[in-house]
Automatic annotation (TrEMBL), chain A:
This is Uncharacterized protein. It comes from the Bacteria.
Length: 273, 291
């Protein structure tokens, strides 16, 4: 009897996970042309549409080995979802082509090009710098006015020195997203006076990294990581930052994945591995 | 009112087999006893009873005084359940989230006369109109024209920094559209306001114009569970283009083989009745659309 109850429990818990996971699996439709005779030599189209759930995600799930690293996974979950149930994973679905405003010094551009070299080890993430704005989908643009991600009210308690270190005190970015929340372009706005800030390049690197998923920073992230709130100066991307990107871009989701769905994927992974 | 009229025609003209877009003439209109009593508020005469018609257990009475409005009857267009499920999610915004209410389907009855502001490059305008012409060519009752002045238009596309043609969205931080529809859910005016900074090159701007234009053809909700090769999935990467399925969804939205501007419940019940008639009697009911 006890074994029977355990079997029933396992069967239903498995079925529920399956049903919930189906929500994030895309469906492929195909139209089949059919006809029906309606008398008097008349025929009408009674086309049928066949829908098939795209189970690529299921097939790939066994390769989601990062689910085995509980410590890293917990940190990734925070950097991606924060404390919100409404924040979904956001990924770039096109290769990122970065264009710099000609007002930005060439040495900054060269340094940025070196900064992005390690990103080439990340699957499904392709970043390069282009010289033609028409080939770009990521634009570092300088504005001759004050631009900030914060309001004056937000910044009123910060000293001038503190403001200088805040990444988005004189910069901000807009991500253009599809209906499924995936990213296809970005404009990164920079106040012209920020160009004089000795921390400008470091802040640019931080901001760029965060725009790869609208990551949340935390003081719990490893030291010297871009994702650590206390990291003041960024020269290069850390192993921790790359590990987060590896998890993030391991698989490109076609539908929005929120924390609860991510947890279902984790459970499913452990059940099939 | 239009949807009510459509429903009546479905019930009373179900015995008529009509040709495609054929003008209705020399037909009798029958209504149920309940409808008759409500309309005339007087007892039936012996003469009336001679013309009784029994249909599926219901007694129908000839409505001699019925004056048919000018219009056309179009035979029911069959679609299978799988297609309809998808269509309902897109056209009626019948989200999988059960807490959200569906909305009536919205459509353009009159021609779209599009004005694009002069700040948008001529080459982009040309590419956009080639795209819209292709759609217009494939969909019978959707006519799209380019006009040179705002006064002639009922559809405006403009950029931030231009004259603000639509004050209701003039302070929006993201690209959006604003549309007006009448009591019959017929869209009669739309304005797309594009954030210039976000669309910093030709290709981004053109794709944004196409994207919002397609959405505004029916105030559609994109269904991200659909495969990403389709526009209606909302996850198409690269250029905005229509697949065979996208075109079929649009074509069906503008087909008159079903009532227009209805809510989801009416749409579902009409399909049920029309499918039953097709299955049981092998004929298609007509949907009457007044001019």
């Amino acid at each position: 009897m006890r074994f029977f109850l355990i079997f029933i429990y396992l069967f239903f818990s498995h079925s529920n996970a399956q049903i919930e996971l189906d929500i994030i699996l895309p469906v492929n439709y195909s139209i089949h042309k059919n006809k029906k005779d309606v008398g008097k030599n008349n025929e009408i189209a009674v086309d049928s549409v066949v829908s098939n759930i795209d189970s690529t995600l299921y097939k790939n799930l066994k390769n989601f080995t990062f689910f085995d690293n509980k410590r890293l996974l917990k940190k990734y979950s925070f950097h991606t979802f924060g404390y919100s149930d409404n924040k979904s994973i956001q990924q770039w679905i096109v290769p990122i082509r970065v264009y710099f405003d000609p007002l930005i010094d060439k040495s900054i551009v060269s340094n940025f090009k070196r900064f992005i070299i390690p990103f080439s080890s990340i699957e499904n993430l392709d970043i390069s710098v282009v010289d033609d704005i028409n080939k770009a989908n990521y634009y570092f643009k300088v504005f001759d006015k004050e631009i900030s991600a914060f309001t004056h009210e937000d910044l009123k308690d910060f000293s001038l020195e503190e403001k200088k270190t805040l990444t988005f005190s004189l910069m901000t970015y807009n991500l253009n997203v599809k209906s499924n929340n995936q990213i296809y372009s970005c404009i990164f706005k920079i106040s012209s006076k920020e160009l004089e800030n000795p921390l400008f390049l470091s802040k640019l690197k931080k901001g760029f990294y965060l725009s790869l998923n609208r990551f949340y920073s935390s003081s719990l992230a490893e030291n010297y990581s871009i994702l650590n709130k206390n990291t003041e100066y960024v020269e290069e991307v850390s192993d921790y930052d790359l590990a987060m990107l590896k998890i993030h871009y391991h698989y490109i989701f076609k539908t929005p994945v929120y924390l609860n769905q991510f947890e279902i994927l984790e459970k499913k992974y452990h059940s099939i591995k | 009112m239009k949807s009510i009229l459509c429903s009546i025609m479905l019930l009373t003209l179900s015995n008529l087999v009509l040709g495609q877009h054929e003008t209705v003439k020399n037909t009798r209109t029958y209504i149920s006893l309940k409808q008759y009593k409500k309309k005339y508020n007087q007892p039936l005469t012996k003469q009336d009873s001679i013309h009784f018609l029994i249909r599926e257990g219901d007694t129908l009475v000839w409505d001699k005084n019925y004056i048919r409005p000018k219009g056309k009857s179009v035979p029911y267009e069959y679609k299978d359940d799988s297609f309809l499920k998808l269509y309902k999610e897109i056209a009626f915004r019948a989200s999988k989230d059960s807490t959200k209410k569906s909305e009536p389907m919205r459509y353009w009855k009159n021609d779209l006369k599009i004005f694009i502001s002069n700040s948008i490059d001529k080459k982009i305008k040309k590419d956009f109109f080639n795209f819209s012409k292709e759609i217009s060519k494939n969909i019978d009752s959707l006519n799209i024209k380019q006009v040179k002045t705002v006064e002639e238009s009922n559809f405006i596309i403009y950029l931030t920094g231009d004259f603000e043609y639509e004050s209701r969205i003039s302070n929006y931080k993201s690209t959006d559209y604003y549309m007006y529809w009448n009591g019959n859910s017929q869209i009669y005016k739309t304005t797309i306001r594009i954030i210039k900074e976000d669309n910093f090159n030709t290709s981004l701007l053109l794709n944004t114009m196409k994207d919002y234009f397609l959405k505004s053809l029916g105030h559609f909700e994109l269904d991200y569970s659909l495969g990403c090769n389709n526009y209606f999935s909302g996850c198409q990467n690269g250029d905005v283009k229509l697949t065979k399925l996208d075109l079929e969804l649009l074509r069906y939205h503008y087909s008159y083989g079903i009532c227009k501007g209805t809510n989801i419940e009416t749409f579902e019940s009409q399909h049920e009745k029309a499918k039953e008639a097709l299955k049981k009697h092998n004929h298609r009911v007509g949907f009457f659309h007044s001019y």
